[in-house]
Amino acid sequence: DAGVTQSPTHLIKTRGQQVTLRCSPKSGHDTVSWYQQALGQGPQFIFQYYEEEERQRGNFPDRFSGHQFPNYSSELNVNALLLGDSALYLCASSLATRVGQPQHFGDGTRLSIL
Amino acid sequence: LAKTTQPISMDSYEGQEVNITCSHNNIATNDYITWYQQFPSQGPRFIIQGYKTKVTNEVASLFIPADRKSSTLSLPRVSLSDTAVYYCLVGEGGSSNTGKLIFGQGTTLQVKP
Questions:
Q1: Bridge partners (DSSP) listed for residue A13
Q2: C-beta of residue A82 within 8 angstroms of C-beta of residue A113
Q3: Within 13 Å, how many C-alpha atoms sit on residue A109's CB side?
Q4: Set of chain B residues whose Cβ sits within 8 Å of the Cβ of A106
Q5: Is B106 left (phi over 0), alpha (psi -120 to 50) or beta?
Q6: What is the tens place of the pLDDT at every residue in B87-109?
Q7: CB A5 within 8 Å of CB A23
Q8: What is the full per-residue pLDDT of chain A (114 aa) written as tens digits?
Q9: Closest Cβ opposite residue A108 in set B32, B43, B102
Q10: B32 vs A contacts (CB less than 8 Å)
């Protein structure tokens, strides 16, 4: 039973560039959430996708956008990268109809901005 | 979602029992309490979840008093591999599979030999 998988594991970009991160949810899950975790801080919620639509959004600018595909996998896109976007980006999946069940996290993509 | 307060750090020794307490004074009626563990450069891993009284699984116990304004994660006989950051979260439906999770700074547990 595959858990949440994310790619790539590490990525280096320069300021102003654009990046796309990918997430495959745990088998049987249909909801994907994205989090940003800066060094030494707890994860911060970016947004959540369900039925290919953004359902909830945290306090992140429009430079952060996403997409969910019919197979429930998801992408996180960040435009016009800033130095402050350097962080661990985490994807979590869950099943919308199973209230009270925990979200499962991947091991993240480490994004470094030079 | 209710805000949580937990100690920034704790030290322990191998073989001891560790108790980490989390305060959540504004917990709502529908809120569950969930704990995650995180190692460096890895994603958070679900440990345990509860609503009231006591919950126990193969790795931990969760104690919740009647007023539910706090909870205590208990790790029996810790080992060096339990050194990690522990997060307490409160939200509707527990870890709120249909909503966002709000993480605090967590408790960094250091287990010494």
A1: A113
A2: yes
A3: 26
A4: 43
A5: left
A6: 998 875 444 445 677 788 899 99
A7: yes
A8: 679 999 999 999 999 999 999 999 999 999 999 999 999 899 999 999 999 999 889 999 999 999 999 999 999 999 999 999 999 999 999 887 766 678 899 999 999 999
A9: B43
A10: 100
Tell me how long chain A is: 114
Q: Do the chains contact at B101 and A106, CB–CB below 8 Å?
A: no
Look up residue B25 and give its two tokens.
Answer: 């004074």
Q: How far is CA A65 from CA A69, A110, B35, B67, in A?
A: 14, 18, 29, 40
Beta strands in A1-114 (DSSP E): 5-7, 10-13, 19-24, 31-37, 44-50, 53-57, 64-68, 74-78, 87-94, 104-105, 109-113
Give chain B positions within 8 Å (CB) of A107.
Answer: 41-43
The CA-atom distances, in angstroms, between B109 and each of B8, B17, B55, B78 are 9, 12, 21, 10
